[in-house]
Amino acid sequence: EKMPLKMEVNGKPHNLSVEPRSTLLDILREQLDLTGTKKGCDHGQCGACTVHVDGRRINSCLTLGVMMNGKKITTIEGLAHGDQLHPMQEAFIKHDGFQCGYCTPGQIMSAVACIREGHAGSEHEIREYMSGNICRCGAYPNIVNAIQEVKN
Length: 152
Ligand code: FES
Prior knowledge:
The protein is an alpha+beta fold. It folds into 2 domains: about 5-80, Beta-grasp domain (Ubiquitin-like (UB roll), Roll), CATH 3.10.20; about 85-150, [2Fe-2S]-binding domain (DNA polymerase, domain 1, Orthogonal Bundle), CATH 1.10.150. Helices cover about 30% and strands about 15% of the residues. It is built from 5 helices and 5 strands, in the order ββαβββαααα. A 5-stranded mixed beta sheet has the order 2-1-5-3-4, with helices on one face. A hairpin with a 2-residue loop joins strand 3 (about 50-55) and strand 4 (about 55-60). The longest helix has 13 residues, at about 105-115. The protein is globular. It starts with a strand and ends with a helix. About 40% of the residues are buried. It binds FE2/S2 (inorganic) cluster (FES). FE2/S2 (inorganic) cluster binds near residues 39, 40, 41, 44 and 46. FE2/S2 (inorganic) cluster binds near residues 41, 42, 44, 48 and 59.
């Protein structure tokens, strides 16, 4: 039986009806068509599904949708302001922080949280905080450079 779910996504209120076992990731992608958030492993191992809940990052594949009642979610689609990219998006472009791009939405959501939560003090700290976001192309040094630029 479906359950009601009220949540705000990228500033827009939604009144949904969801399966109790649906993850936030599946609800975002399948019910709200917000496919910028990626499904890599679906098991909390890769970080491709990273979004912000009330400003804090989470793996949306490990989060049940019904637990999001009353929460504010931000996805990669909610970072830019119209045509104006978020500074972290600009920095990823400038520093080549991606190759195939599959992990990029999750990387960027974690990168924004990394600075906001105060974990961008050193390269070591950044790498530690970002360690849950896997990039199979190995763009790590460029991702760190992008974060350091936005932080400064
Ligand atoms: Fe959620 Fe990999 S899809 S961590």
